[in-house]
Amino acid sequence: MASRLRPLAPMLRTLPRTAVGEARVSSTLASLAAARAASSARRSLSLKSFFTTRKPKSDTFTSQFEPVLEQADLFHPLSKSPLEPVRTKAEWIATHGTCPVCKELSPDEKSKPPKHECPDCGYPTHCSEEHYEMDQEHHKHVCGILREVNEDEHDLRSGRRMKEFEFPGAQHRDEAVNLSNWDTFLYTRGFLSMNSERSMRHVSHVLTYPLTIGSVLHQASPYQLGKDLTIEGLKSLAALRHTLHPAIISGITQSQDLRTTATHTVRIFCLGARAESHLPPHIYMQLAYLFPSTAFQIHFVGPDAIPPHTKSKESHQHVHYDQMTFVYDNSLYETYHAEAGPFNPYYDVFFLFSPGLAHPATKEMWKPTIPLLLDTKCAIFGTGFDEQDVMNDVNEIESAGYELDWLMKPRENAFRSLKHEVNMTDVRQSAQCNWGIWGIRGRRYDVRPSDQ
Ligand SMILES: [Zn+2]
Ligand SMILES: [Zn+2]
């Protein structure tokens, strides 16, 4: 794996939510809501979700997409942005950030706050123009990424009609999807207006969770035996695909409720869930469309597993949406495990999105969980922010001496977010959500489906 990014996962993980990406998440969700409204005007879609959208009348339709910013006007120094949330972000960085030159001159002292904004990327990067000039050799390597993030953020809040978020509905059963990479997936699934890298970054950022899951589990997976998958990996996935790709059952059509007609439900457990649980359910329908004969339960477990757009403080909530049921639970996984069992490798799979198994802040919390997961003999997949983050988790697993088999060697995730997330306490560092992926399973010697 080629490493292009500095390790920053620990920083991203421990920062308060206001520090990294929260503004971005809310602006992305607002854009999604607008696109959802546009989408419902364009064709009829199920709106069973609590993710409420007002159906715009055709004459008001265009007026809700009055752009605040034109496409040629997306770059602004953060402190002078016409958008208030962006100015707030600039203030936060200028207060809590780091001047890399100060840091280098006296590593043990807290640097002066980075008040000086780079004219090319618009970020507050150094304490003074003098330190900025001294650091050009280093800053030029991150300036381009920061500029891109700056413009993307203004674009998300520009008020333009975001056609790229108007996602396609179900596919025909005989339609083949190509999961080699983002391009082939978006093309074969008929996504609209995917004609710029910026659109690709926006869309990959919200679809990375469902597509990371889908691309591993699907029979058209880009991950192949020998190259990425071990023999044990192929066995585990073959078991799951046996359930996910059943022969067409006569009498069942897509219009019927698969939650009651499907012969089996596949359960996907997302543990330590954070951002992945805040996505609106219709985003996860892009996973369901890949498996038109399967009903899903997605269990988001962890203290930050909260359904989007809810005021409820219930620690356990269910949301039903077409062929999927979403379960949100804030209990510790040890407790949840006992309730959710028994587990079956043919129907159950675990995903740990950037878990931080080796990180000092989260390491101890994972210790009781991992043996329980291995004991189920179900497949377990994990992701990381960058190469270093992935390898920290992998080394932690290896050194713990568990009885396990590797299913997938750590590698770059074909469906990582293409968007960079900037570490606001040190803007030299950035990472991509679900950059890398790996897979393990508790060691076993023979598995048969429970009904044989
Ligand atoms: Zn300085
Ligand atoms: Zn710059």
From TrEMBL:
It comes from the Eukaryota. Residues 99-156 form the Mitochondrial splicing suppressor 51 zinc-finger domain. InterPro entries: Mss51-like_C, Mss51_Znf. Residues 248-423 form the Mitochondrial splicing suppressor 51-like C-terminal domain. PANTHER family: GH20023P, PROTEIN MSS51, MITOCHONDRIAL. This is Translational activator for mitochondrial COX1.
